[in-house]
Design brief:
By secondary structure, the protein is α+β, with helices and mostly antiparallel strands. It has one domain: Phosphoribosyl-AMP cyclohydrolase (Ubiquitin-like (UB roll)). The protein contains 3 helices and 8 strands. The strands form 3 sheets. Strands 2-1-6-5 form a 4-stranded mixed beta sheet. It has a two-stranded antiparallel sheet with strand order 3-4. The chain is globular and about 50 Å long.
């Protein structure tokens, strides 16, 4: 597959960190971390991984595609649920080993497969000296059992 981006293999640190070439650095498994935020509120809505193919599909279509590590397959966000993520902006960090996608989500605007707006719908708290989880979102925006019927 031909990508619209280069590789870091023969580039200097300055070319990678200060240049204009998009040179994503994938890990040993061929993946790159992707943090996803809501383009309007700035809220973190999910974290995922991309491989070269999902990154290329994202650049091609303007819709977020990821690599599902559990299913070992390309994952077009929203293909099943209807909660498609339109990519408003895609950034990379200084050494290009992480991505930041700013998205607007169509559909019920849930980004989590559990039906919540964000995958980060719980906060870690401490109760009686032990870590516990507190829900920060009141309820899911959809019933995952209905959306993801098997």
């Amino acid at each position: 597959m031909c990508n619209s981006f280069g590789t870091q293999s023969d580039k200097t640190k300055d070319q990678i960190e200060l240049g204009h070439g998009f040179l994503p650095k994938f890990d040993k498994d061929g993946l790159i971390a992707a943090i996803v935020t809501d383009a309007d509120s700035g809220d973190v809505v999910m974290f995922a991984y991309m491989n070269a193919h999902s990154l290329e599909k994202t650049l091609e279509t303007g819709e977020a595609h990821y690599w599902s590590r559990s299913r070992k397959e390309l994952w077009h966000k929203g293909a099943t649920s209807g909660n498609v993520q339109d990519v408003i902006e895609l950034r990379t960090d200084c050494d290009q080993d992480a991505l930041w996608l700013k998205v607007r989500t169509r559909g019920a605007t849930a980004n989590c497969h559990q039906g919540f707006k964000s995958c980060f719908y719980r906060a870690v708290t401490k109760e009686d000296g032990k870590a516990a989880l507190e829900f920060k979102e009141e309820k899911p925006l959809f019933d995952p059992d209905e959306v993801y019927k098997k």
